[in-house]
Amino acid sequence: MIYSFKGHIPVVHESSFVHPLAAVTGNVIIGKNCYIGPGAAIRGDWGEIILEDGVNVQENCTVHMFPGRSIRFRESAHIGHGAVIHGANLGRNCLIGMNSVIMDDAVIGDECIVGAMAFVKAESIFEARQLIVGNPAKAIKKVSDEMIDWKTAGTRLYQQLPTDCFDTLKAVEPLRHIPKDRPKQEDFYRTLQEMKNFKL
User: Fold this and answer.
1) Which are the contacts of 22, defined by CB distance < 8 A and separation ≥ 6?
2) Residue 45, domain member (yes or no)
3) For FRET with 158, which of 51, 74, 83, 88 sits at 20 to 30 Å CA-CA?
4) Beta carbons within 10 angstroms of residue 13's beta carbon
């Protein structure tokens, strides 16, 4: 659902997928290979929202700001299910955990990881590669190469997802019985802990 507002029409690159149950309003620019999940609301009614290439905004996320502001999510930023970003800027290849809240004028540096359910106060500034957790959120250590490699691999799945959605997603009537030839799904990504255990 794409809406104009006061003359502003969202700009969405043709390689990006916006789910029909998402709402993108007004002064929003979405770059290449982005994924916007169902239930996401990206409201550029009061200010500008820029999503650079490869960003994903997952299911039930909210992106908004105070009037007159412009915010930017840098390339490959990864916003987990249910997160709220209100007037904050996100660095390149960062990860925002599920149900976290990032408040106005906060800056999340490149390759930071924000833990699930973290609360980042307004005007907080975090340098690159910080692991940020808690309420109020604090940086507790540097993000390791192993952690960022795992995050980057997960984001690549979301950068492939727009193509997969364009190619295979369609509205259907449900089946009433489980078919014998029901396809199996691939096991192509592991949790960080599973990867560590696998390497031992």
Assistant:
1) 1, 36, 37, 38, 39, 40, 41, 42
2) yes
3) 88
4) 14
Question: For 87-116, how does the pLDDT look when each residue is reduced to its tens digit (9 = 90+)?
Answer: 999 999 999 999 999 999 999 999 999 999
> What CATH number did the domain enclosing 130 receive?
2.160.10.10
Q: Which residues contact 133 (CB under 8 A, 6 or more apart)?
A: 114, 115, 118, 140
Burial class for 55, CB neighbours closer than 10 Å (0-12, 13-18, 19+): buried
The pTM of this model reads 0.91
Spell 127-151 as b/e; 16+ CB within 10 A means b.
Answer: eebbbbbeeebebeeebeeebbebb
Q: Calculate mean pLDDT across residues 173-195.
A: 81
